[in-house]
Design a protein that fits this description.
3 helices
Length: 96
């Protein structure tokens, strides 16, 4: 035996279906608005991140230049100096 919905159940079903369509449309609008705001809010973060990464690159290059100059200066020292405590201290400083 097949079940049938009553007239009131059919009306409720139709009302719920219509309400679901309305709410789905509102949800889609809210998601579009949210996504637009997120894109806008993300711009200053991306700009700050880019600036930070550029500064990190510059800082690393500076540290590498200093370490390279220290290596050159230590290599110009005598072998006795290079085997001594001052060389170890200089290497520790360079590595830091």
């Amino acid at each position: 035996m097949a079940f049938k919905l009553t007239k009131l159940e059919l009306e409720r079903r139709d009302r719920l279906a219509a309400d679901l369509k309305t709410q789905a449309s509102k949800l889609e609008d809210a998601i579009r608005t949210f996504n637009a705001v997120m894109v806008e809010a993300q711009e200053p973060v991306n700009m700050a991140l880019t600036a930070y990464n550029e500064l990190v690159t510059e800082t690393r290059a500076f540290a590498e230049d200093i370490a390279s100059a220290a290596d050159d200066a230590m290599n110009d020292k005598s072998e006795a100096w290079q085997n001594g405590e001052k060389a170890q201290a200089a290497n520790d400083w360079k590595d830091a």
